[in-house]
Amino acid sequence: MSIATNILIFALLALVTHLVVYRWTLRDRKMAERLSSFLEGEPAAKGSLGILGTFRQTMSRRINDNDQGALKLRERLVQAGLEHLQPGEFTVIRWGLLLLLAGAGFALRGPVAGVIGAALGALAPNGYLALRTQQRVGVMERQLADATDLMANGLRAGNSLQQALDQVRRESPQPLANEFDLLLRTATFGSGIHDGCVQMVQRVPSADIKLFTAAVLIQRQVGGNLAEILDGTSQTIRERLEMRGQIRALTSQGRLSAVVIASVPVGLIALLALINPSYISLELTTSIGHVVLGAAAMMEIAGFLWMRKIVAMDI
Description:
- By secondary structure, this protein is mainly alpha-helical.
- The chain is built from 14 helices and no strands.
């Protein structure tokens, strides 16, 4: 099919999608207009929210009603530091990106490119969440040792546990300060220090955070000098960080080899496309060639992830 035909098909799909969204959100838009008229005393302008805005609210409300999936997604968003984003909103973004990339690939290069675009659109948001979570947890793990020492010093000075937590909350950098703020709020105004520590572990998937919370909870159950326990915990956290740095230095060659090996085929294809386009024209212009390129890309990604898994070590 020609590019004009693909663009026409994409436009028709976009129109059908727009009509479906309009019909699906019609009830919610009418309800919003009546509610706005009741609260403000005058009729609201029709379409004030817009179809996309109403679609976002409708998806957010309906997806948030799905308890299990919404709770799991909400937990992942909190772990990534995106607690302001609702599960429904993230799902709308994910589906919108999937449809956009799939439609663009289908319009420009055909069905195979559309499938590849859909796969990228489905995987990219989850990859972004995983990357943000990894970066956020890494920053907090580097900040935790100093925060533990600060808390131990506060306890030696005669402060209570809540006062020591408040000192850490005030003097620690972000994002760790926010986590200690939530821990302190739960301990002071919520259901106690135990539930606060459990929720902190759920928000931050880190072995060092688990070690810190375990030290606090065990001391509250069996007694002992919490300042000395935290000193030992801080030393353990620092040793773990040092060992991670050493392992990262020792495996740097393997990680670099994974990047180089994965980049060679891509660079070779780009070089051939510039030097001798006819040599790889079949792969770029035929459906079978698209399938071959798609399979090669999948194997490249799988091999890269496999090599990264080999050199990755958990401590």
